[in-house]
Amino acid sequence: MSEETRKYQTEVQELLNLVIHSLYSNKDIFLRELIANAADAIDKVRFESLTNPALKAEWQIKIEPDKPRGIIKISDNGIGMTRNELIENIGTIAKSGTREYLASLKKNDSKDIPELIGQFGVGFYSAFMVADKIELLTKRAGSEEKATLWTSKGESSYTVDDADTTEHGTSITIHLKPDCKIYLEDWKIQEIVKKYSDFIEHPIKLISVKKKKDESSAPEDEVINSQKAIWLRPANEITEEEYKQFYGHLSHFETDPLLHIHYSAEGTSEFRALLYIPTKAPFDLLMPEHHKVGVHLYIKRVFITDNCPGLLPDYLRFVKGVVDSSDLPLNISREMLQDNPGIHKINKNLVRKIISELKNLLEKDREKYNSFFNDFGRFIKEGVHSDFQNKDKLTELLLFESIDNPTGKLVSLKEYAGKMPADQKEIYYVSGESRAALEKSPHLEFLRSKKFDILLMTDPIDEWILQSIPDYAGVKLKSVGKGDFELDEKTKSEKEDKTKKAGEEHKTLLEFLKKQLESEIKDVRFSSRLTESPCCLVSGEHDPSIQMEKIFKAMNREMPKMKRILELNPDHPLVESLQGLYNKNAADPKLAEYAELLYDQALLTEGVSLADPVKFSRRIAMLMVDGIKGSLKDENSK
Predict the structure, then answer these.
(1) φ and ψ at 518, to 5 degrees?
(2) How much is the CA Rg of the chain, to the nearest whole Å?
(3) Taking phi first (over 0 means left), then psi (-120 to 50 degrees means alpha), and beta for anything else, what does residue 622 get?
(4) Distance between CA 616 and CA 601 in Å, rounded?
(5) Residue 390 Cα distances to 396, 397, 476, 489, angstroms
(6) For the chain, where do the domains classified as CATH 3.40.50.11260 start and end?
(7) What is the DSSP string of 93-151?
(8) How many CB atoms lie within 10 A of CB 462?
(9) Start and end residues for every CATH 3.30.565.10 domain found in the chain
(10) SS3 sequence of 219-270
(11) For residues 184 and 278, what is the distance between their CA atoms, to the nearest angstrom?
(12) First and final C-alpha spacing in the chain
């Protein structure tokens, strides 16, 4: 095929503009990204060479600075690309969510952008931070197709043309900008490789021109990375700095990890693992289109895949690291990995170890664990719901705010249960959209009068996972908005006598309200949970809560409308007033208006939008008019 000029995809052009014109705190990452891409390319062809010996080679990555010409070349003998693969991989971004990514780049400070580039796997574009022009020469291993030369100045278009090289792999020639010539210095290249790429398994060779004593010049090559598989070395021989460096190479994150887990398993399943818990969750972790397991699988030091879903459960997808197995066969296909018994054994061991380390962190470094939970607690909650085998252990890792503690202070179920007074029979919780709203909930009034603490569930996933935790250490978890409370015998007897007496005294009023609101509620009764508010809505013991209904609605999921119970405070003066009005004239049209107002008030305290807010406003205005007239009449009668 002849030379052709092609336009960049719109999203790529936006990305290039950001890369070229934004201010970066660290341009060094361009070399890290290109080395990582080269290592990935070698890993791929190395895997193919297991079944195609003709592809075997002396795997290597070369870095060649050329000071007179102002260029630096990074080359590998990896898998390479065909012409079409090159256009697809570089001319477009074959990912959904690209616009969201670009929007995130624009919102973040420039110092965060290098990390984001690594996360999205488009590190090649980082080379334009230092380049006036880039030439990429590539040939696909095992393909009869010609090599391809790609050229771009990072503007609106690029060219592709046939080339004559016969060696498979990729070489990238960067024509450096005038202010980026530091990347031609040997010491600078060595510094970057040592910091970011020292643990790359394949040799990284620096090809530099050295002057001899007779003033002649000759190129020399020097391997500038250690090539040591850190996960195979004894933990007592590895420094903390080395652990951090490997994490940076593996994750492309600029921040240090929260903790690392260096683990060796022997017996029925033999493998070594080096796992990391990140300090902060990357912003795209909850985006399904970018979901990729963060653990790399090696078999006898041969890289197999960085996306093996069976290696860790989905809820631990934030974990980064390496697993190297001695048991799995090298010729296993990626498709067969997920159902392989050996993978299941590794999975079981890794999950147990990670949970154990997190529990240890919870008990010994609470501040550090709180930081972890604030970022990754939602994933632990997912595990409680999905991992039945480890549910109890994961439940121990959960933290919640509670009404007795200031905002931001979290308690575990074990800590909550340990402080329960003798007359408290259940672990109480309330769920809603915010702490501020929950603190004012009428459902809490009686419990607060008893000095009982209440857990505050403000994460939408809380309602979901609590279905998996009916009790903790034999103590029932109880929603304050469902059913009746389990009280001590004396308090229970007093409450039952009080509500029974009120029910008898106001029987006719209850019947009227129930009939008037029968399309919205399934019962009206007097409450044992209210001490100040006039009314509240209560769900049946096994019915979904109002909060759950709101979550389903936000997800555009259908849920049958549940009728709830309207509970009244037997001590509130509103009850006596309504009963008096009913006794005076049971046919008074105002009674129906007041019944609707009462129900609307109960809805508002639950944070539920009214079906007809205009009608509610009109009723409030009528009440104000009646109240003002009554006050004026009383004043005039004096």
Answers:
(1) -60, -25
(2) 34
(3) alpha
(4) 9
(5) 10, 11, 20, 37
(6) 400-607
(7) ---TTHHHHHHHHHHS-GGGHHHHHHHHT-GGGGGGGTEEEEEEEEE-TT--SPEEEEE
(8) 21
(9) 4-223
(10) EEEEECCCCCCHHHCCHHHCCHHHHHHHHHHHHCCCCCCCEEEEEEECCCCC
(11) 33
(12) 104
Q: CA torsion angle for 372, 375, 380, 382 (degrees, to 10)?
A: 180
CB proximity list for 132: less than 8 A, separation 6 or greater: 153, 175, 176, 177
Identify residue 272 by its one-letter amino acid code.
R
Phi, psi dihedral angles at 434 (to 5 degrees):
-155, 155
Q: How far apart are CA 147 and CA 170, in angstroms?
A: 10
What pLDDT score was predicted for residue 606? 84
Closest by alpha carbon to 174, among 30, 9, 15, 7? 30
Fold (topology level) of 230-364: Ribosomal Protein S5; domain 2 (3.30.230)
Instruction: Decide if 52 contacts 142 (C-beta within 8 A).
Output: yes
477: enclosing H helix or E strand = strand 475-479
Identity of residue 104: S
CATH 3.30.230.80 segments of the chain: 230-364
Q: How many residues does the chain have?
A: 638
94-97: long-range pairs with CB below 8 Å, 24+? 95/120, 95/289, 95/290, 96/289, 97/284, 97/287, 97/289, 97/290
Question: What average pLDDT values come out for the chain (638 residues) when binned by 10 residues?
Answer: 80 70 69 87 87 90 96 96 86 47 53 41 78 95 93 88 92 96 96 83 89 67 88 91 87 86 87 94 58 74 76 92 85 69 92 97 96 94 94 96 94 95 92 89 92 92 86 93 82 88 94 94 92 90 77 71 90 92 91 92 86 87 80 68
Q: What are phi and psi of 194, to 5 degrees?
A: -60, -40
CA–CA distance, 483 with 479 (Å, rounded to integer): 8
10 Å Cβ neighbour count for 411? 19
Closest CA to 477 of 431, 402, 427: 427
* pLDDT reported for residue 362: 97
How much is the pTM? Answer: 0.70
Q: Which two tokens stand for residue 185?
A: 């210095």
- Per-residue pLDDT at 552: 73
Topology (CATH) of 4-223 = Heat Shock Protein 90 (3.30.565)
Decide which of 3.90.1150.10, 3.40.50.11260, 3.40.630.30, 3.90.180.10 is the CATH code for 400-607: 3.40.50.11260
Give me the pLDDT at residue 287, please. Answer: 53
C-alpha–C-alpha distance, residues 300 and 462, integer Å? 42
Cα dihedral: 510, 513, 519, 522 (round 10): -20
| CA separation, residue 499 to residues 482, 527, 532, 574 (Å) | 17, 7, 15, 16
